[in-house]
Amino acid sequence: MPMKADVLICGAGIAGISTAYHLSVRRGVTDIILVDERPPLTLTSDKSTECYRNWWPDPDGSMVAFMNRSIDLMEELARESGNIFRMNRRGYLFATASKHKAETFREAAEEAERLGAGPLRVHDGIDSTYRYSAEEAEEFDAPISGADLLLGREVIEAHFPYISKRAVAAIHPRRAGWLSAQQMGMYMLEQARGHGVRFVSGRVESVETNGGRISGVSVSKRGETLRISTPNFVNAAGPFVEHVGRLLDVSLPVFTELHMKVILNDYLGIVPRDAPLLIWSDPQYLPWSEDEKSFFADSEETRWLLDEFPGGVHTRPEGGPGSNMILILWDYRNRVMDPVPDPPLDPLYAEIAIRGLSALLPGMRAYFEKMPKPILDGGYYVKTEENRPLIGPMPVEGSYVVGALSGYGIMGANAAGDLIARYVCGENLPSYARSFSLERYRDPGYREILRKLEEESWEL
Ligand SMILES: Cc1cc2nc3c(=O)[nH]c(=O)nc-3n(C[C@H](O)[C@H](O)[C@H](O)COP(=O)(O)OP(=O)(O)OC[C@H]3O[C@@H](n4cnc5c(N)ncnc54)[C@H](O)[C@@H]3O)c2cc1C
To answer: Which candidate, 446, 322, 316, 308, places its Cα nearest to that of 388?
Structure first.
């Protein structure tokens, strides 16, 4: 018998699973097929640092509203599941050695406050009311939001003695932290399956239309072709979103960028287990020895190691009690490239990341001579030119896209799935819907937003 579904979703990464969840569990659309050629959550969604934040200073507040909605939904899931995915609220701590950057922190925090990310509290001196307790921050809904701006060495040292003495300011957005993306995704998938969603293992090869609207999808499965008739098709193909768009002759304005991360056994305990996500905001030159410098200077291939590196190297502890693992990320050399299944990983990444991190955590220098064995992995950020997602209808009636989730697809997945479900079910749309639709690029007023976005960058 030919298969049929009310909605077919291509891609069982976090975006596709969230869409299936919000349609089925939250709205009762139960005849849904989720198709993936890989096991769920195994292409990009298991490569992330799994962090979240509502700290998104941007020109019109769309990203703050979107992330606040997503975090609300994640908190609902954490509450109902007994926090099965261990969501915490430790926050992100950005530090700088530059007084000028401290002002940028303040401006960004004022902007974030204006956009709805919560109040800014400024702490200048040791007697401040600033508090950070990891125990408290272990609660996903700890009653703290907004951001704390720490000014001066004393207040930073009092709370984070392990941070470089060069740091003169730090900003600590508080509705932020991390979680297990795998466990959140699997929880949502199980709930969706419990509400009738079927998973089909196979590859979407073509999408058919009839009279200008979606009529069916062909899926190849172990040499066979399955034809599934459906009036609704959701493209949640992650790095292949552009490719899948082309099956409908739709060109999606995205590109893919390879990003890496390293996992290390921090056997000396340089990153305290109760730390927030720690970020060094300043550009820097890597601390090489004189011998290393002259060796690198000799060759065209290695000379770049002596160039200035960008700000943004970051780390966090990973794992529960007894774990010494840390994650380190540093987007110092992002490669725009077409996605390939096993991306080429930079063999120098771990060494560079440890050296870069020593600007923030001088204790990391202990690893220069004897580096712990690194575990490297990587995946693709799918991005639009202004780094906002693409969520909404595609030009063929009955087709939708949920993609370009860049480096924020875990934190944004719930609001993204919720938004697609609203489109499919014809519900009212939230304020940010227009800013993420494919249509936005046709709006002349949107050019102004694009210009402002180019001037601001809080990418992480
Ligand atoms: C190093 C790194 C760090 C990150 N850190 C964070 C972070 O801290 N916080 C955060 O929120 N986000 C983070 N991200 C981003 C986040 O991981 C992604 O935005 C998110 O996982 C994207 O999910 P997705 O479902 O769109 O894509 P994917 O997880 O890639 O899923 C897409 C799925 O579509 C399937 N597919 C594609 N084409 C077809 C086809 N034709 N037929 C069948 N199936 C198909 C694929 O097999 C795949 O399973 C990070 C990403 C990376 C790489």
So the answer is: 446
- 381 CA → ligand 1 middle, Å: 8
Count CB-CB contacts under 10 A for residue 39: 11
Does any ligand 1 atom lie closer than 6 A to the CB of residue 389?
no
pLDDT band at 446 (very low <50, low <70, confident <90, very high): confident
Distance 160 CA to ligand 1 centre (A): 33
Name all domains of the chain by residue range, CATH numbers in brackets: 3-50+181-254+384-429 (3.50.50.60), 92-177+256-383 (3.30.9.10)
The protein residue whose alpha carbon is closest to atom 20 in ligand 1 is 409
Determine which of 18-27, 129-138, 141-150, 223-232 has the lowest per-residue pLDDT on average. 129-138
Q: d(Cα 207, Cα 14) in Å, to the nearest integer?
A: 22
- Whether residue 458 is predicted with pLDDT greater than 70 in this model: the reply is no
- Its sign, for the CA torsion 10, 11, 15, 18, is positive
The mean per-residue pLDDT over the stretch 93-112 comes to 95
